[in-house]
Write a structure and sequence with these properties.
Order of helices and strands: EEHEHHEHHEHEEEHHEHEEEEEH
Strand content: 25-35%
Number of domains: 2
Helix content: 25-40%
Number of strands: 14
Shape: elongated
Radius of gyration: 22 Å
Largest sheet: 6 strands, parallel
CATH superfamily of the largest domain: HUPs
Distance between the termini: 35 Å
Structural class: alpha/beta
Strand order of the largest sheet: 1-4-3-2-5-6
CATH topology of the largest domain: Rossmann fold
Amino acid sequence: MLVYRGFPSAPSGRVALTIGNFDGVHIGHRALLARLVAAAKARGLASAVLTFEPHPREFFARDASPARLSTLREKLERIAAEGVEQTFVCRFVRRFAALSAEDFIDRILVERLKTGYLTVGDDFRFGAFRRGDFALLQAAGDAKGFQVEAMPSVRIDDAHRVSSSAIRAALGEGRLDRAARLLGCPFSIDGRVIHGMKRGRDLGFATANIRLRGGKSPIFGVFAVEVTGAGDRALEGVANVGFRPSVDSDPRPLLEAHLFDFSGDLYGRRLKVRFLCKIRDEIRFSELENLKARIADDIVSAKRFFKHSS
């Protein structure tokens, strides 16, 4: 997949396009991308996605914005896996946010991207103050020569709409099975292993530490996890995501994963940590010996989970 930071100065041809934040690339997003790819093939167009960095909600209210379900890298990898040929990553800055809906259509969709076909979610809004809607897109498409289709929301159990917000809610409640249903796979966090304070090693449980980008996480607590990137197979383990209140109470959340049956140096490695079962919330222990005993119990709980789920 070709990835453009912004827009090419000279588009190579007309595209079949969809637009969105695609945070997490959940099953609703995948249905939209599948429809896009099929429509592009049927019309002889290149399939393309327009997405934004940062997330618009981070631009307008960074402190109040929700934690991301995926990094930009993860999002692009997942979009590529759906067969999309091009993705345009538009910087969401003040000048772009101020574009009227009509200017967005003329300058971006028509002039810069040469849109021949557009499919969007049925709740899609765009332009300054979110004044653009599907009716405006349809009218513009009829006038400017591109076809517009709306994709109905994907629902599970015939009622619940699939959305990134619903996934965050499920993760916050520790309902990992529900989050996995909405995502189409277990929730995961990718990142490079960094040097820490070596406290886990001192306690007898060495951990691979991953700093969470943006200083936010949609998930907190202790979990049974599966980790890839540490070797030629997935490894089972237990992980804590939080602020380590028993150790140094870091204001930024950290992912600490202890891998079973592994010894070695993982610094600088990129790992993918899949969260499979929540064991407990993060707890502050006044004595490190109590923390050490609880970690041992967490490992037993995680191993019991893997034994019963195999």
